[in-house]
Amino acid sequence: MESVKAMWGVVTDSQTEIVALAKVRNEDVVPIVVSGYHYTIEMNGVKVADGYENSPVTVKPKSKTTLKFSLRLNNSFIREWWVTHIANGEKTKIRVAIKPTIEVGGRDVEVPVFLRESEFTTKLLS
Protein backbone atom coordinates (compact mmCIF):
# COMPACT_ATOMS: atom_id res chain seq x y z
CA MET A 1 0.00 0.00 0.00
CA GLU A 2 1.31 3.42 -0.91
CA SER A 3 -0.99 5.42 1.33
CA VAL A 4 -4.21 5.19 3.33
CA LYS A 5 -6.72 7.96 3.98
CA ALA A 6 -9.63 7.46 6.41
CA MET A 7 -12.83 9.42 7.01
CA TRP A 8 -16.11 9.03 8.87
CA GLY A 9 -18.91 7.30 7.00
CA VAL A 10 -22.51 6.62 7.93
CA VAL A 11 -23.36 6.57 11.65
CA THR A 12 -26.44 4.79 13.00
CA ASP A 13 -27.57 3.73 16.47
CA SER A 14 -25.94 0.32 15.98
CA GLN A 15 -22.75 1.05 14.02
CA THR A 16 -20.24 3.71 13.03
CA GLU A 17 -18.62 3.42 9.62
CA ILE A 18 -15.04 4.40 8.86
CA VAL A 19 -14.22 4.59 5.16
CA ALA A 20 -10.58 3.91 4.27
CA LEU A 21 -9.15 4.64 0.83
CA ALA A 22 -5.90 2.79 0.12
CA LYS A 23 -3.70 3.54 -2.87
CA VAL A 24 -2.11 0.33 -4.09
CA ARG A 25 0.29 -0.55 -6.88
CA ASN A 26 0.56 -3.83 -8.77
CA GLU A 27 4.13 -4.24 -10.03
CA ASP A 28 3.45 -7.74 -11.39
CA VAL A 29 2.65 -8.71 -14.97
CA VAL A 30 -0.54 -10.51 -13.89
CA PRO A 31 -3.67 -8.96 -12.39
CA ILE A 32 -4.33 -9.21 -8.66
CA VAL A 33 -7.88 -10.30 -7.90
CA VAL A 34 -9.14 -9.12 -4.52
CA SER A 35 -12.41 -10.86 -3.60
CA GLY A 36 -12.97 -9.13 -0.25
CA TYR A 37 -11.32 -8.27 3.03
CA HIS A 38 -11.39 -9.06 6.73
CA TYR A 39 -10.90 -6.23 9.21
CA THR A 40 -10.55 -5.75 12.95
CA ILE A 41 -10.32 -2.67 15.14
CA GLU A 42 -9.30 -2.87 18.79
CA MET A 43 -9.25 0.04 21.22
CA ASN A 44 -7.43 -0.62 24.50
CA GLY A 45 -7.87 -4.32 23.82
CA VAL A 46 -11.63 -4.05 23.27
CA LYS A 47 -12.58 -5.40 19.84
CA VAL A 48 -15.00 -2.79 18.52
CA ALA A 49 -15.02 -4.02 14.91
CA ASP A 50 -14.59 -7.43 13.33
CA GLY A 51 -16.05 -8.15 9.92
CA TYR A 52 -15.67 -9.41 6.39
CA GLU A 53 -16.80 -7.55 3.30
CA ASN A 54 -17.20 -9.07 -0.14
CA SER A 55 -15.75 -6.33 -2.31
CA PRO A 56 -14.41 -7.77 -5.57
CA VAL A 57 -11.88 -5.68 -7.46
CA THR A 58 -9.09 -6.46 -9.91
CA VAL A 59 -5.85 -4.51 -9.83
CA LYS A 60 -4.48 -4.52 -13.38
CA PRO A 61 -0.84 -5.42 -14.04
CA LYS A 62 1.70 -2.59 -13.81
CA SER A 63 -0.92 -0.17 -12.51
CA LYS A 64 -2.10 1.81 -9.48
CA THR A 65 -5.62 1.98 -8.10
CA THR A 66 -7.49 3.05 -4.98
CA LEU A 67 -9.26 0.40 -2.93
CA LYS A 68 -12.18 1.39 -0.72
CA PHE A 69 -12.68 -0.34 2.62
CA SER A 70 -15.76 0.18 4.81
CA LEU A 71 -14.98 -0.66 8.43
CA ARG A 72 -18.02 -0.85 10.71
CA LEU A 73 -17.63 -0.34 14.45
CA ASN A 74 -20.21 -2.10 16.59
CA ASN A 75 -21.51 0.72 18.79
CA SER A 76 -22.53 -1.73 21.54
CA PHE A 77 -18.82 -2.06 22.44
CA ILE A 78 -18.23 1.70 22.74
CA ARG A 79 -19.31 1.74 26.40
CA GLU A 80 -16.84 -1.06 27.27
CA TRP A 81 -14.03 0.80 25.46
CA TRP A 82 -14.96 4.14 27.09
CA VAL A 83 -14.45 2.65 30.57
CA THR A 84 -10.90 1.63 29.59
CA HIS A 85 -10.25 5.06 28.08
CA ILE A 86 -11.19 6.84 31.31
CA ALA A 87 -9.32 4.30 33.48
CA ASN A 88 -6.17 4.93 31.35
CA GLY A 89 -6.26 8.67 32.02
CA GLU A 90 -8.21 9.36 28.79
CA LYS A 91 -5.66 7.51 26.64
CA THR A 92 -6.43 4.87 24.04
CA LYS A 93 -4.23 2.54 22.01
CA ILE A 94 -5.96 1.71 18.74
CA ARG A 95 -5.07 -1.18 16.42
CA VAL A 96 -6.51 -1.49 12.91
CA ALA A 97 -5.87 -4.53 10.70
CA ILE A 98 -7.10 -5.03 7.14
CA LYS A 99 -6.47 -8.36 5.39
CA PRO A 100 -7.60 -8.57 1.77
CA THR A 101 -8.45 -11.97 0.32
CA ILE A 102 -6.69 -12.49 -2.99
CA GLU A 103 -6.81 -15.30 -5.49
CA VAL A 104 -3.53 -17.20 -5.78
CA GLY A 105 -3.33 -20.28 -8.00
CA GLY A 106 -7.10 -20.75 -7.92
CA ARG A 107 -7.26 -20.51 -4.11
CA ASP A 108 -8.35 -17.63 -1.89
CA VAL A 109 -5.62 -16.47 0.51
CA GLU A 110 -6.00 -13.83 3.25
CA VAL A 111 -3.00 -11.48 3.13
CA PRO A 112 -2.19 -9.21 6.10
CA VAL A 113 -1.20 -6.05 4.21
CA PHE A 114 -2.27 -3.29 6.59
CA LEU A 115 -1.68 -3.02 10.32
CA ARG A 116 -1.65 0.34 12.03
CA GLU A 117 -1.23 0.95 15.73
CA SER A 118 -1.46 4.40 17.27
CA GLU A 119 -2.59 6.24 20.38
CA PHE A 120 -4.83 9.16 21.13
CA THR A 121 -5.57 11.21 24.22
CA THR A 122 -8.56 13.32 25.19
CA LYS A 123 -9.05 15.88 27.94
CA LEU A 124 -12.81 15.74 28.25
CA LEU A 125 -12.96 15.20 32.02
CA SER A 126 -10.00 17.31 33.13
TrEMBL record:
Record InterPro entries: Ig-like_fold, LEA_2, WHy-dom
Name of the featured protein: Water stress and hypersensitive response domain-containing protein
Database matches in Pfam families: LEA_2
GO biological process: response to desiccation
Domain Water stress and hypersensitive response: 1-119
Gene3D superfamilies: Immunoglobulins (2.60.40.10)
